[in-house]
């Protein structure tokens, strides 16, 4: 038979094939990325292409549609059932008749780009670990006695080229029923091209995955459609372990003091995850058993407790992890109520208190892909700090304590409606104005009182504390050593005596039963200690790297995402840097989990990266104390901040 040339766009891959070759077959032969779940049976509609677009067609003969066969019955059926955009064809049905250009639209590619909103980071290439493959299995025959599993495996090899698949007893247990229910037509879910993970009766083209960030305070989950990469539902929940202790170390001591305590904590966090899975599945209108893949990140203590590992060793030097490699498990092994055949990938930990959450942050922020030096700071009760570039990466964890989250602060509270989040202080009059969460007006604007009647003004959230302190410092209310300047009391009623120290009045409520919002000397000290720990950790990494400045700073975590970079710098939380190069990264650990969920190669990538991260242990580094003391001053005793003067 005659040959015809076919060019696929946008890849530009081309080749000659006998007239009559299905376009999908030609695409496969050329390694063109075209999706398919049904294996060319005209059911899934994933293989759609557009015929005759582009330069090449202009030079062609006759009309573009003459280059391929006209719609066949299968396409007509698909069109009637599910509909196709005008100009589209099913590439498994359309055959090549003459030289043609075939465009593969983005939604027909397996490896499509999942766009991230932030311009400074790369998009996620969709390449999920779980792929669905529809197969028709030979029925059993007494004269050719083979097992149902073996016939399924043979069908997968013949129809999809998937040879040598691993399988597990749990798949076989339900297999006979499924095969008969589907009348020998089933959809197999294959994990990483290697493991037969689950079998659905009949045809199925949707499967879901969930990315989870297990934080010590909150657990967050994103449910994703693995065929599009889209987040279909998100949810969060307080970590139920809170009842055993607010912070990580108090949970470790609970385990140390109560035999069997680790099992209680494990049970609590797993119950939390299960509750969250049900919430996001309900929101998306699916069943939890439609979730076939999960990726989890968390700090080392959360990581160990979720896995049912006693975290006692992490309570003291040398902070040995039970294990630091990433791993893939069955959901049922972890007591997770997903499809019991679901696979769960847990990102690797780095070392000591630098865990899988930091691995997620690295995947998300990609310091390892840049030439310039990035500083990535994930601020929570502990700050995880990563510094480096393409050549070298360093990481440490610094004990900042919960002050940045509003704990230990007299008027501190969690970010919730009614909490002060923005503050400005007039340097002349020392009068403040502020904004609270849930209201767009400043406190000195008309209508503020009415607008906030419901929520009230209840306290100051973490980012608000940074702002109020920075504004107090800029207005001269706080001196460089952190003292609230009592001599100003003569000038402004906002400065009040408070025992032997002074405090600053941010808000006097109209109703005397409501709280007065003040910043005390103790509050300033708590933030000084936290920011000094953060800075000292950063400085330690900079010393080790041999640099005096960094080129970019990414602030991750809920708190890091809400603080104004300028104010973080005014207080000396972070080193001097061009403000245009300081950005908020959002929940980078959770984003890292989502990347590993949507792109299986990211799992191999992070596994390699963590091996070369140099862990610096702040607890045993003598220089840490020195840096810490110097960093107590505002913004710093010796370090210069030329960018702030600009
Ligand atoms: Fe499924 Fe073409 S491959 S419709």
Automatic annotation (TrEMBL):
<dbReference type="Pfam" id="PF17651">
    <property type="entry name" value="Raco_middle"/>
</dbReference>
<dbReference type="InterPro" id="IPR040506">
    <property type="entry name" value="RACo_linker"/>
</dbReference>
<dbReference type="InterPro" id="IPR041414">
    <property type="entry name" value="Raco-like_middle"/>
</dbReference>
<dbReference type="Pfam" id="PF00111">
    <property type="entry name" value="Fer2"/>
</dbReference>
<dbReference type="Pfam" id="PF17650">
    <property type="entry name" value="RACo_linker"/>
</dbReference>
<dbReference type="InterPro" id="IPR012675">
    <property type="entry name" value="Beta-grasp_dom_sf"/>
</dbReference>
<dbReference type="InterPro" id="IPR036010">
    <property type="entry name" value="2Fe-2S_ferredoxin-like_sf"/>
</dbReference>
<dbReference type="InterPro" id="IPR042259">
    <property type="entry name" value="Raco-like_middle_sf"/>
</dbReference>
<feature type="domain" description="2Fe-2S ferredoxin-type">
    <location>
        <begin position="4"/>
        <end position="108"/>
    </location>
</feature>
<dbReference type="GO" id="GO:0051536">
    <property type="term" value="F:iron-sulfur cluster binding"/>
</dbReference>
<dbReference type="Pfam" id="PF14574">
    <property type="entry name" value="RACo_C_ter"/>
</dbReference>
<dbReference type="InterPro" id="IPR027980">
    <property type="entry name" value="RACo_C"/>
</dbReference>
<protein>
    <submittedName>
        <fullName>Uncharacterized 2Fe-2 and 4Fe-4S clusters-containing protein, contains DUF4445 domain</fullName>
    </submittedName>
</protein>
<dbReference type="InterPro" id="IPR001041">
    <property type="entry name" value="2Fe-2S_ferredoxin-type"/>
</dbReference>
<dbReference type="InterPro" id="IPR052911">
    <property type="entry name" value="Corrinoid_activation_enz"/>
</dbReference>
